Amino acid sequence: MQAIGIAVATVIGAVTAWQAREVAKLRERVVALEEQAETDQQRFRDAIRLIRALQLHIDELLAFLRLHVPGQEPPPARYRIPATLQEEI
After folding, report:
1. Whole-prediction pTM
2. Residue 67: helix, strand or coil by DSSP?
3. What's the rounded Cα separation, in Å, for the pair 49 and 16?
């Protein structure tokens, strides 16, 4: 009877240790995913700002084409591609 109790305790201990390792792995994954989410959110904001700047520049170029005077240069681009989006573009 005592041997069966020791065997059950050993099995329970092994299962508990396995669960602890799995929980630690999952916590690491959660931390990594939270960090990635923050990075993705910043890149999304940068992309939105760039899209707005590009739309403004398109509007300026359209106005330039409507009012074109020979010898006049088109307006310079006032946007800059954010470093977080360089790789994507």
Report:
1. 0.60
2. coil
3. 49
